[in-house]
Amino acid sequence: MIISMTGFGKAEINENGHTITVEIKSVNNRYCDISIYLPQPVRSLEPKLKDIIQQKVQRGKLNVSVRIEKQNEAEIDIDLNPKVVQSYMHLLGDLKKFAQIDDPVRLDHLLTFKDIFAPKEETEEEMQILESLLCKAVEKAVDDLNTMRSQEGSHLSKDLAHRIDVIEQKVDLVKTRASERIPEIRQRMKERLKQLLEDEQFDSNRMEMELAVMAERLDITEEIVRMGSHIKYYRKAIDSAEPVGRKLNFLIQEMNREINTMGSKCNDAEIAHEVVDMKEQLEIIREQIQNIE
User: Fold this and answer.
1) pTM (whole model) above 0.85
2) How would CATH label the architecture of 7-75+122-151?
């Protein structure tokens, strides 16, 4: 099953006096790269939350945003930091003496220092509740994300299947055209042979060598057979339950190599047109699979 690396997931949980909202945005990436924004009280949970996500996501760049609100709005989530206030009072007192200022230190002076307040520390019991709720919210958000990624992957899978069908049809046309060229090639070889026989310095070894080189240069049977094998493996990959983005990328490179060889060997206008069409389809596929997990 094809899974897209692009998606969005969201979950909200209202329990035990807390409202926890988790949002996850995902885009394509070679690896699984997770960035989590957490409120200060629960930042220590980042490794655990990353583990939860990595169990469900193989590849992609994920930005995770977590918002925690207490349902009792009357409560204040910050405390005074007495030690910091005391340090600033001493510092301002020393500054007054150094600058020879007689004015007293006022409250508005202290309020310019933001760190005189600190987030209120949760009790151990509250932290256990937050951890449980947060893990549950992250799991739900990842599941929501994967639902969207799977839906997008389904659309991609249909498009990829259609384009490989087009390429296979083009390969069949190239195969047919290549077989039609055999009489033409044979006639050219006869004419070349006639020229050699008329030459007084005719060299039979040279004739054999030229015939062998011409035959090898024009034969694309191996390339057509390998393309068939790649196409078969490609279809098997897009129906696989495992992540196949890297595998498909490798197959596209191999197909492109075979198609280029067909074009360079045949030296035929009709085949050249089919080669251009196949390469166009491959380029679209290549762009599509960059977004597949």
Assistant:
1) no
2) 2-Layer Sandwich (3.30)
